[in-house]
Design a protein that fits this description.
- This protein is an all-beta fold.
- It is about 0% helix and about 50% strand.
- It has no helices and eleven strands.
- The strands form two sheets. Strands 2, 4, 5, 6, 9, 10 and 11 form a seven-stranded mixed beta sheet that branches. It has a four-stranded antiparallel beta sheet with strand order 1-3-8-7, with no helix packed on it.
- The chain is globular and about 40 Å long.
- It starts with a strand and ends with a strand.
């Protein structure tokens, strides 16, 4: 019954913006840190951003810092990733994941994963 469902991906031009959503169910969402990861063709899945259960702590990969913002609404069991000033190198499948411990960009710390949503940045 555990579900994480990403949405909001699509095709955007360089410099454009997207907001990704991750809707969760089947676990105690408010007790979990949530991370966003991405995987481009032929590359390892990498951490993008994460947020603690209380939203008191956030972390960003250097490649997205200053352009992306993570947030959460525990009342809606949803985490968001606002992506601005998008670049072609941001093109990837984006995944959200839930971590019952602490906010981290280390992949193996996450127990639950969504199916991913495609983000393509191209002119």
């Amino acid at each position: 019954q555990v579900q994480l469902v990403e949405s909001g991906g699509g095709l955007v031009q360089p410099g454009g913006s997207l907001r990704l959503s991750c809707a969760a169910s089947g676990f105690t969402f408010g007790a979990y840190a949530i991370g966003w990861f991405r995987q481009a063709p032929g590359k390892e899945r990498e951490g993008v951003s994460c947020i603690s259960s209380s939203a008191g702590s956030t972390y960003y990969a250097d490649s997205v810092k200053g352009r992306f913002t993570i947030s959460r609404d525990n009342a809606k069991n949803t985490v968001y990733l606002q992506m601005n000033s998008l670049k072609p190198e941001d093109t990837a499948v984006y995944y959200c994941a839930a971590n019952p411990r602490v906010a981290t960009l280390i992949r193996y710390q996450y127990d639950y994963w969504g199916q991913g949503t495609q983000v393509t940045v191209s002119s």
